[in-house]
Amino acid sequence: MRLHAQLRDCTSLKQCADVSRDLIDNYIENRMIWEELNYYKVHRSLLGKHPAFAEFRRRSELLQLPVKELVRRQRQVENNIWRVKSEIAKGDKPHLDPIRRERLAGYEKELNDINRLLE
Asked: Is 62 found in the same domain as 108?
C-alpha cells in the first residue's frame, strides 16, 4: 500500500520507474508466497517453488557431499566469484550488473556454507 501511494506521488520519470520496479517485485514475491500457502492448504505438502526452498535444497545437497567433493566445489565457487567480479569490473554491459550482483551474492553464500562445513 505504501508503494501504491508513492506511485501516485511521483515527481519524476526515474522515481516512477524505481517505485514501479519495487511494486512489481513485491507483487511477484507475495504471489509466490500465496501459491505456496494455497498449495499447502489443499495438498498438505510443500510446492517448493519459492526461492527460500531453493536455498534450503542447496544447503541440504552440500550436507550430503563428501569432504573431497566439498573441496572441489569450494574451488569451483571461488573461480565463479572471481569470474563474476571480473565481469562487473569490466563495466561493458551495465544492464547485466543487477543479475551479476545477484549471482555473486549466491556464490558468496554458498562459499560461506562450504567453508563452515569444512571447518
From this structure: yes
- For residues 112 and 59, membership in a common domain is answered with yes
Contact 87, 100 (CB under 8 A): yes
Those residues of the chain that have pLDDT short of 50 are none
Tell whether the torsion through CA atoms of 64, 66, 67 and 69 is positive or negative: negative
Domain containing 23 equals 2-43
For residue 2, the model assigns a pLDDT of 83
Domain count for the chain: 2
**DSSP letter string over 40-86?**
HHHHSS----SHHHHHHHHHHHHHHS-HHHHHHHHHHHHHHHHHHHH
- Write the CB contacts of 39 (distance below 8 Å, at least 6 apart in sequence): 45, 46, 47
Q: In this structure, what C-alpha cell is assigned to residue 19?
A: 517505485
Give percent of the chain above pLDDT 90. Answer: 51
Q: What pLDDT is stored for residue 58 in this prediction?
A: 87
pLDDT tens track for 72-86: 999 999 999 999 999
